[in-house]
Amino acid sequence: MPRAPSRLSRRDFLQGAALAAAGGIAGCDRQDGPTVGDVAALDRVPVARIASPRSEMQLRAVLAGSAGGVSVGGGRYSMGGQIAADHALHIDLRGMNGLVWLDTGRKRVRVQAGMTWRRLQSLIDPHGLSVKVMQSYSNFTVGGSLGVNCHGRYVGMGPIVDTVRAFRLVGADGSAVEATPQSDLFGAAIGGYGGLGVVSEVELDLADNTRLRRHAERVALADYPDFHRERIAAAPDAVLHNADIAPPVFDAPLAITWSRTDAPLTEPARLVPEHLDYGGDQTKIWAASELPIGPSVRDRYLTQPLLHERVVAWRNHEASLDARSLEPRSCSSGCVR
User: Fold this and answer.
1) Number of domains in the chain
2) Domain of 202: which CATH number?
3) What is the mean pLDDT of each run of 10 residues along the chain (337 residues)?
4) How far is residue 210's CA from residue 227's CA, in Å, rounded to a whole number?
5) Buried b / exposed e across 288-319, counting CB within 10 Å, b at 16+?
6) Exposed, middle or buried by CB within 10 Å (0-12, 13-18, 19+), for 215?
7) Contact by Cβ (8 Å): 135, 152
8) What's the sign of the alpha-carbon dihedral 168, 197, 319, 233?
9) Is 140 helix (H, G, I), strand (E, B) or coil?
10) Which residues pair with 46 in a beta bridge?
11) What is the DSSP string of 221-286?
């Protein structure tokens, strides 16, 4: 339920100011001052200091006690220097990953903005609930997803803004407000990349976790718009859909649809286990993209299984994919961290 802004106490302010001044989070490069990098590990941005609050009160105190530029990072999947500003205060929200409340009857949840979708899935799956809209991979944070107004593979659904009931926004002066669809801040902050403040909490609608059956087929590029309109958008049971296209000419979409079903499960796991070894996937991706026989490797080991293997899985299982499965072999030691 909506909460009135709370008063920032002197103690909270001093704690937050000390947190911002100390600037330390585990793993920061301090040889020439703190730096912030993204998951691609291609570059690092020098920042003035780093703060990692664990509560909205600490976040408010950090901002109230700061001067100058501020950047904010969560999963750090916005690459190319987007998640940090040169010599600014950087706020690492990954410590704000707690559950505020879960209402299973109303299918609604409120979480801290630094929570990843994967962590949220682990909390709601036991109750037969699923995220309504998110990206195809579960490593992103909820707050970061609001910042870009992400979309996913969800048939008939728009971007995440359509599933948000409310959120808390902390401004540069440390003040906090509750934003709802009726407020001007709501539409301005979602998709605003943090320009108006830092999201601290998010309230979301949820969906039922149902069984899904995968179906894949090749579609001619010229036929795809009609195919999607007639076969996917109009299908009442279609839940997830994407069309994969491959180099070098990108002219042969592989249409993959997950539809509701009562068929027996072929994949019993409710969620993709965390911390799996994706060496096999990395090898296939490397071979398909680097070897002279790459196209045949792609067809045999990546495409043909999608076309011919029968898969029935939980919605949460397909929604809990790990971005590490996409890493190249050069990241075998772990680019995503």
Assistant:
1) 3
2) 3.30.465.10
3) 55 55 42 81 89 97 93 88 88 97 98 98 98 97 96 96 98 96 95 94 98 97 96 97 90 96 98 93 89 92 95 98 82 50
4) 25
5) beeeeebeebbeebbbeeeeeeebbbbbbbbb
6) middle
7) yes
8) positive
9) coil
10) 35
11) GGGHHHHIIIIIIT-TTEEEEEEE--TTT----EEEEEEE--SPPS---SSPPTT---HHHHHHHH
Q: Is 168 helix (H, G, I), strand (E, B) or coil?
A: strand
Of 288, 290, 285, 275, nearest in space to 322 by CA: 275
- pTM for this structure? 0.88
- Domain-located, residue 336: no
Q: Which residue range(s) make up the domain with 284?
A: 211-330
Tokens of 152: 């996913």
Q: Are residues 200 and 107 in the same domain?
A: yes
Whether residue 320 lies inside any domain: the answer is yes
Claim to verify: residue 324 and residue 215 sit in the same structural domain: yes
Name the residue among 276, 281, 271 with its Cα closest to residue 313: 271
Spell out the residues 6+ positions from residue 2 whose beta carbon is closer than 8 angstroms to its own: 166, 178, 180
Q: Please indicate, yes or no, if residue 335 is contained in any of the structural domains.
A: no
Q: Which residue has the tokens 């279609």?
A: 238
